Amino acid sequence: MLSLKNILICTDFSENADFAFDFALNLAGHYPGSVLHVLHVLPEPAAQFWRGYINEVDNVEDKAREEINALFASYKNRAPAGCELQAVVRFGKPGEEILAYAKSVSSDMIVVGRQGRGAIFFGNTAAHVAKSAACPVLVLPLDFKKLKGWTP
Predict the structure, then answer these.
(1) Where are the beta strands (DSSP E) in 11-100?
(2) Is residue 65 left, alpha or beta, with left meaning phi > 0 and alpha meaning psi from -120 to 50?
(3) How far apart (Å, rounded) are the C-alpha atoms in residues 79 and 42?
(4) What's the pLDDT at 95?
(5) For residue 144, is pLDDT > 90?
(6) Which of 15, 80, 116, 128 is the most exposed, fewest CB within 10 Å of its CB?
(7) At 42, is the pLDDT very low, low, confident or very high (cuts 50, 70, 90)?
């Protein structure tokens, strides 16, 4: 029998990622005691010297974390009682960070939207994760929601 104790949902907070979150939340509801890990990856800039300069001037990383935590709070508010939700932000290459996090929490399944608004799910990342993950990967197109009229 399939047991999903650790479900990883990757988000860039796009409409498709929100749909994937709702789908993963519904899935977790079928497995009492499961943990839904919500991961957002901020890509590292290619030129690392800019990161230090930007952080010194504007404290960008802290501001980004604050904004992301507010977005995570909206996800937590949608989770039913008894559903454990872990929200995590990572910095780096999205595909690599998703796979590393999945391994670190022994993910039983990874859920991603096929395409989002940012660099995280432009197909290449979802394809890389699906090809390289050690667990099943569910890739959800937004069209599934629109065509099937799926609601959580």
Answers:
(1) 35-42, 84-91
(2) alpha
(3) 24
(4) 92
(5) no
(6) 80
(7) confident
